[in-house]
């Protein structure tokens, strides 16, 4: 059995930040990061398409969801870009508030974290999945390889999204066995599935749209951005940010839809006028070319087919333009579910707010802390999730080390 002062379970973004913060707070403490995969930080490498969108200039509670939303004050008190500046990583805003390393390399972010862990003498224990936690004075962490003893433990096991990148929810199950309550896991930041017959003709198409999530006939929330169509689902950042609402559908048994406004800067009257004007210009053209100066050609043809039972051959013969305008302003797709954990970027749910103190220690288990996606909080797309992972990890690491110092 190996003995440590502080053991961090999970070598992702939050776990590595926790290790660095703990090691810096108490240079004498023996700190270990325990990771089930062969290497730490596998998910970090996949973030932001390999460019790692690690924070956002517009951090605020409205971008976070879940019972632990009060913890978002951590993100305003701790600066992730400053933390990385201290590790030699220069960060910059991409002009839309999304903060990236200047080199746009997630590998550089992981290297910086690992270099600091090495400088602080932190032990990495990989290929080791913790399967049980016991407490009898010290904590005993059970795994198939070895048992590890620690005075303080930080749980940084992530959610259930994309298990090939590490997190599989096993640590939350261990917590539940210890009597700690967790909100049910649900995929978030994920494509939404729809009727394949309706969406297949648009496969590969992209469009700027204002997207509204509708549940039980009532609009719930809207987001604007680029929408992408596949043969069975609709995605894009704006759809990702709405996707967690799909849980409403499953819980309430309500019919859910996405309504796409494909000309969001015009009202219905202006769209009708644009359609009339375009029809005058393209009178002699085949109907399939009517809308190709406003939308891509496949998108334009699709819109005509959705608006009219029979599409005439010539543009000049298209009438009832109010109906076409209505289709363009409200293109409906039924929502039949999410594309699941394996395609989701984050997990909704996790350790419930009433189990966690403001210092990220567990209310009922002194000496045990939690951070990152394991808690019942997740953010919108745009760097909010990594910011919370790094900042909550750093705070949990610091408080765990301070609690040990106090006990000395
Ligand atoms: C493809 C993709 C792209 C993303 N892009 C962005 C982005 O650009 N910006 C952004 O803000 N967010 C992004 N996210 C979300 C973000 O990556 C996560 O919210 C964040 O990494 C969570 O960090 P974490 O440390 O809490 O959990 P994780 O990164 O999931 O780390 C948990 C670690 O714990 C380990 N572990 C779990 N259980 C055990 C156990 N029992 N024993 C030992 N080890 C265990 C896992 O193997 C894993 O390495 C993206 C997510 C994905 C999947």
Secondary structure tally, helices? 13
Backbone shape = elongated
The CATH class of the largest domain turns out to be: Alpha Beta
CATH architecture of the largest domain: 3-Layer(bba) Sandwich
Key phrases:
7-stranded mixed sheet; 408 residues; alpha+beta; 31% helix; FAD/NAD(P)-binding domain; binds flavin-adenine dinucleotide; 7-stranded antiparallel sheet
Describe what you observe in this structure.
This protein has helices at residues 13-25, 42-46, 73-77, 80-85, 106-119, 170-177, 196-199, 237-243, 246-252, 268-281, 297-307, 321-329, 384-407, and strands spanning 2-9, 31-34, 55-56, 64-65, 91-93, 98-101, 123-125, 130-136, 138-143, 148-155, 182-188, 192-193, 206-215, 218-229, 233-235, 256-261, 331-335, 337-338, 346-351, 368-370, 378-379. The protein is of the alpha+beta class and 408 residues long. It folds into 3 domains: 2-187 and 345-407, FAD/NAD(P)-binding domain (3-Layer(bba) Sandwich); 192-261, no CATH class; 268-331. The strands form 5 sheets. Strands 1, 2, 7, 8, 9, 10 and 20 form a 7-stranded mixed sheet that branches. A 7-stranded antiparallel sheet has the order 17-16-13-14-15-12-18. A hairpin with a 2-residue loop joins strand 13 and strand 14. Helix 1 (13-25) packs parallel to helix 13 and helix 11 (297-307) crosses helix 12. The longest helix is centred in the C-terminal third of the chain and has 24 residues, at 384-407. It is elongated. The two termini are 23 Å apart. The mean pLDDT is 96. Bound molecules: flavin-adenine dinucleotide. Residues 9-15, 34-37, 43, 46-48, 53, 129-130, 156-158, 161-162, 165-167, 170-171, 345-346, 372-373, 383-386, 389 line the site of flavin-adenine dinucleotide.
């Amino acid at each position: 059995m190996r003995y440590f002062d502080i053991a961090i379970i999970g070598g992702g973004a939050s776990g590595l930040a926790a290790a660095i913060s703990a090691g810096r707070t108490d240079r004498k403490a023996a700190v270990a990061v325990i990771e089930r995969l062969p290497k730490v930080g596998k998910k970090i490498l996949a973030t932001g398409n390999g460019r790692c969108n690690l924070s956002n200039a517009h951090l605020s509670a409205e971008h976070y969801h879940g019972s632990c939303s009060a913890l978002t004050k951590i993100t305003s008190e701790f600066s992730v870009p400053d933390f990385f500046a201290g590790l030699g990583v220069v960060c910059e805003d991409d002009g839309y508030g999304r903060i990236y390393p200047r080199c746009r390399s997630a590998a550089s972010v992981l290297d910086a974290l690992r270099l600091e862990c090495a400088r602080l003498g932190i032990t990495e224990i990989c290929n080791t999945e913790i399967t049980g936690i016991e407490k009898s004075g010290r904590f005993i962490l059970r795994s198939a390889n070895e048992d590890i003893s620690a005075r303080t433990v930080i749980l940084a096991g992530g959610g259930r999204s994309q298990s090939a990148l590490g997190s599989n929810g096993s640590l939350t199950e261990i917590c539940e066995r210890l009597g700690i309550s967790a909100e049910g896991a649900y995929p978030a930041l994920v494509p939404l599935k729809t009727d394949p017959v309706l969406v297949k003709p648009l496969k590969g198409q992209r469009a700027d749209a204002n997207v509204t999530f509708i549940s039980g006939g009532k609009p719930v929330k809207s987001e604007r951005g680029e929408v992408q169509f596949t043969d069975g689902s609709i995605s894009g950042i704006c759809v990702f940010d709405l996707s967690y609402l799909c849980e409403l559908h499953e819980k309430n048994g309500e019919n859910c839809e996405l309504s796409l406004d494909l000309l969001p800067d015009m009202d219905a009257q202006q769209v009708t006028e644009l359609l009339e004007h375009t029809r005058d210009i393209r009178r002699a053209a085949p109907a399939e070319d009517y809308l190709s100066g406003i939308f891509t050609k496949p998108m334009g043809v699709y819109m005509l087919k959705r608006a009219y039972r029979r599409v005439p051959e010539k543009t000049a013969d298209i009438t009832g333009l109010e109906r076409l305008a209505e289709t363009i302003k409200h293109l409906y797709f039924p929502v039949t579910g999410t594309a699941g954990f394996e395609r989701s970027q984050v997990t909704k749910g996790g350790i419930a707010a009433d189990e966690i103190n403001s210092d990220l220690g567990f209310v009922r288990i002194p000496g045990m802390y939690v951070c990152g996606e394991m808690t019942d909080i997740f953010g919108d797309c745009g760097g909010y999730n990594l910011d919370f992972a790094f900042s909550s990890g750093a705070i949990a690491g610091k408080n765990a080390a301070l609690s040990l110092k106090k006990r000395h």
